[in-house]
Amino acid sequence: MNDSPVIIIAIFLAAILMFVFPLMTMADKKDDVTQLQVQTATTEFTNEIRTSGTLTQLKVDNFVETLASTGNAYDFDITLQILDENPEKKSNGAQVTIGDNVYYVMYTTQVLDAIKDGGTLKLKEGDIVSVAVKIKGDTIAGQFKKFIFRITGDNSAVIVGEESGICTTTAK
Description:
Helices cover about 45% and strands about 25% of the residues. By secondary structure, the protein is of the alpha+beta class.
């Protein structure tokens, strides 16, 4: 009878090893695949804007649909740094120099307002496009990790995608 608690603990540990760890491993692999999909979609979306010089509601809708196909919900931020067309000119006697490039920034709400109702936002060569994506909530692997690493506060299960680049063409 003295072996009963040991047997119960052994059965409990065996159940954890047989079910929980494989489940955690599979959930973690699914997160890795989702991370790759999100980063790839973000890179393709940013490169499409950079190379075409245009941003439309259709492109944003396709991007959001691609993200949603992973089965998770995401927040995304689009930041455009628009190169000012009127740089400052400095005159120093006979020598005239053109000042530094100046950018003004459009954030997500401004960008989405500019393209709503079928509008097109046209960019020019030298403008900078930045897109950042972050998952809303937690995945199964994230919930497992939060449970296990509750003490350390490990937050490695967050799925994000970031990409930025300079426009290589001026929209016509």
